[in-house]
Every structure is written in structure tokens, then in C-alpha cells.
Amino acid sequence: MKLRILSFQMAALLAVAAVAMLTGPFASANLVVNGDFSSGNTGFTSEYTYTSSLLPAGVYYVGTNPQAHNGNFSPCGDHTTGNGLMMIVNGDTVPDVGVWSQTVAVTPGTDYFFSTWIASVHPTSPAVLQFSINGEAIGPVFTPPSQTCQWVQFTANWNSGSNTSAHLSIVNQNTASTGNDFALDDISLSDISPPTLTASLTCQPSAGTVPFATTMTVALTNSNLESFRRFSGKIDVSLPDGGPVYPNWRAGFTNVQPGDSFATSWQTNIPAVGTVIGDIRFLLTAYDVTPSPYNQPPYPPAGDSDTSECIVTAAAP
Ligand SMILES: [Ca+2]
Ligand SMILES: [Ca+2]
């Protein structure tokens, strides 16, 4: 009866998890406001001049189609949806002018991931961009392909050190007046500190004279900040005195989502057979089951795990 109830609970949890995985945001918490430009020309500052004509050099516009504003530009769609807003820039002839800047609050001593998408909107002399945070250059300069409308991602890692705020900037170092035209979209700064996962396994009672039953309780808690992280768990059993090991004795404790936890318990019978006399070790391992593509770069590395062991001491009658 208990097993039947457990399997009903497991089936319900798996069904909920499957729906959430299809509809979930699958994005790291982005500290940048309006990084996708969907709110228009707001939330950031620029040392460039805002004008819909996108002329001369040193101006920008937030729009959906570069060619609609400057006939020399390609009719690129934005990166977010293909028909949304992006920042369209006619590169300045003066180096180190801030194209885009925004200040965000950060937690000291934390690793962050700075990212932007960029495309050329004119094939001549692609932009040469540089990230900076609090006035210091972060990562190498980056250049989009000369082929227009090809969105590529550029990223850099940054540790906040003692900072409580980050002044993010994207600066263009190309000073060509012909060409040097590009679009930016989906700018983000995300916390990449290791996710926190805890696994707990208890057995009550933890000792007895065979045969007896012990109640095993599993708890997995996923308290990381990245909304795409998923964890699961399994239990391996080792019988006493170097006896047999049963890997994956119990497995697949569902996909535990960020900010969520999973708990279940059941009774396990410790039978009156000679191989179980002594310490029986039940090892719970919780592991990362984050799906592709969120388990590989440019997303933060997967692989967090945690273990918890309970030992049941079985005595001969
Ligand atoms: Ca956009
Ligand atoms: Ca230009």
C-alpha cells in the first residue's frame, strides 16, 4: 500500500516537472534592466546621440529594422525574437566612447557572467568592442562577423571583489567612419556562483535485530539562483563486510527545480539473512540533471552534487 502511494506521488511530481521544464524561463537571473531593449530607449545611458536617421557616425537608435532608418544598413531582425527592438549603432570616429552603460547592484565576492549579442548591420569595417566594469576593461576586445545580421554572443567573467555596484559599459574602439555599424541585443549580467544543493537521507530506527523495518526519508533541496538548474538523486546500497553493492538501488528522485525541494519516505525491510548482519550503508547522491543546452557553455558549468549516508546496523537474533 505504501509503495502504491509513493509511486502515485512520484508520477504526479514527474508530471509537474515535465510541464515546468517546457514552459520555464530557462534563463539565469539577469541583473541588467531592459537588456533586450523591449522597453525602448530607457534603463541605460549612452554617450552616443539618439536619432532615428542613424546619421552621422556617433549616433544610435532603438528600433526593429536598421534599414528602415539608414538605407545603407541591412534589414536585420533583433536577436531576442527576430522582430523586436535592438540598439542600432553608427560607430563613432572617436575611440572609447561609451555605446551602452548601466549600473547594477552586485553582491561582493561573487562571480558574474557578462554577455551581449552583436551583429554587423553594414559589411565594412566591423566594430571592435570592449566590455568594462567600474572603468576596468574585462576580457579581450571582440568583433562581430562582417556578414550582416549574423548575431554572435560575446561573454566575459568578472568577480565583484569588494564592489557593491557594477557600472557596466560597452565601448567601441573602431574609429572607421565608413561601415563600423552594428546592433546590440540581449545584454545580461548573471550570478554564476555555484548552485547550492543539499541531500539528506535518514533511517529510523538505525539499528535493530533482524528481521525489522526502518523508515527511510529522502530530502533534496535546490536553492540555487539559476532558474535552469535541475537536480535528481539516487541511492546505492553496500551490504556489510565488503558484501555486494547495489548501485542505483533507488534512483530518479525527480527533477528538483530552483527554490524547490523534494521529500519522500518509505519502509525498507531488513530481512533475517546472514549477508545483512552488520552495518548496511545507504548512500544518497544528488546530482545535476540540467538539460541541454543549459549544461554547457555559455551557461555556467553543471556538475554540482551532494551526498548523505545513513547506516543501518543489523544484529543477528
Ligand atoms: Ca531585443
Ligand atoms: Ca558608420
Tell me what you see in this structure.
The protein folds into 2 domains: 2-26 and 194-315, Immunoglobulin-like, CATH 2.60.40; 49-191, Sandwich (Jelly Rolls). 7% of the residues lie in helices and 44% in strands. By secondary structure, the chain is mainly beta. The two termini are 28 Å apart. A 6-stranded mixed sheet has the order 1-2-3-10-5-8, with no helix packed on it. A 5-stranded mixed sheet has the order 12-18-17-14-15, with no helix packed on it. Strands 4-9-6-7 form a 4-stranded antiparallel sheet, with no helix packed on it. A hairpin with a 6-residue loop joins β14 (231-238) and β15. The radius of gyration is 27 Å and the shape is elongated. The protein has one helix at 2-23, and strands spanning 49-50, 59-63, 86-90, 97-105, 111-120, 129-133, 136-142, 152-159, 165-172, 181-191, 197-204, 207-209, 212-222, 231-238, 245-251, 260-270, 278-288, 305-315. The protein binds calcium ion (CA) (2 copies).
